[in-house]
Each structure stands twice: as structure tokens, then as C-alpha cells.
Amino acid sequence: MYLDEISVGTRIQLPPVVIGKEQMMAFAALYDPLPMHLDEAYAKSTRFGGLIAPGVMSFMAVWSEFAKMNLFGQALVAGKSTKVEWLKPVYVEDTLRAEVVFSKVTKRNAHNGIAEITLDAWNQHGDLVLTSVTEAVVQYRSC
Question: Is 71 left (phi over 0), alpha (psi -120 to 50) or beta?
Fold first, then answer.
């Protein structure tokens, strides 16, 4: 999909993702080795009452479902930025469902522009757990 083919406001429902314990702990051990992600006894003593997933893992788990769609194909030049806000903890075995919306398109130059993609993710209880805005550099068809 080229930048000039994007319709602002288009929404895409992503497949649900389950935050598995083994996968979560492996990710945490490599990238976010805090006790709230790795030590069950410690996690139970925190305000969360149990193990919680690293925020970046929660985001990447749902973002990867969008990435697998490869909607931009060869028109994707590069990622520019991502801002994530974590609103509620994500627990082991939570099921996250997410939706992306093309929220803005901005011309950069004669060859490409910025596609702004907003992603919201909810847990199985309907609680919004994270929201993000990603900017991607995307080519125009005419290039």
C-alpha cells in the first residue's frame, strides 16, 4: 500500500494474542530482567499481585500481528518513531486484542511521506492496556 492509497480513519482489527508465561519470562530474562517479570514470589508481594509482562513485550506482541500483514509491502521505506503509553498491567495468560487505525498522513517530499498508525490494545476484560502511535515513512505510488 502506497501513501496515496491510505484512507485516514481506516480501522483494522488484529488477531488476539495470548501472553504465554514461558515466552514472557524468556523475553524478560533477555530484555527486562526485573523481579516483577521473573520472580513469582516477589511479584505476588507487589501492587500487581502477580507476574506482569514487560511493557515492550506487550506492545510487540500485538504490533507483530500488524507487521505480519505487511500492508505497505515495498512501499515501506522505514520506521520513523513509536510512542507507547502503558495504561494497565498485562498479566501472564492475558489475551490481548488490538485495533490499528491510520490516523494521519503527512507529505514529506516528492517521494514519500509519513503514515501515522495508532494502535490500541485491550485485555480480555475490555480494559485498555496500551496505546501507541507509530510513524512510518511510506513511498508515494508515483515514485
Answer: alpha
Beta-bridge partners for 134: 82, 117
Q: How far apart are the first and last CA of the chain?
A: 13
d(CA 24, CA 57): 7
Name the amino acid, one letter, at 135: E
Q: Which residue intervals of 21-116 are DSSP H helices?
A: 21-31, 35-38, 40-44, 55-69
Q: What is the pTM for the complete model shown? A: 0.93
The model's pLDDT over 56-76, given as tens digits with 9 standing for 90+, comes to 999 999 999 999 999 999 999
Residues in the chain: 143
Q: What angle do CA 54, 59, 60 make, to 5 degrees?
A: 95
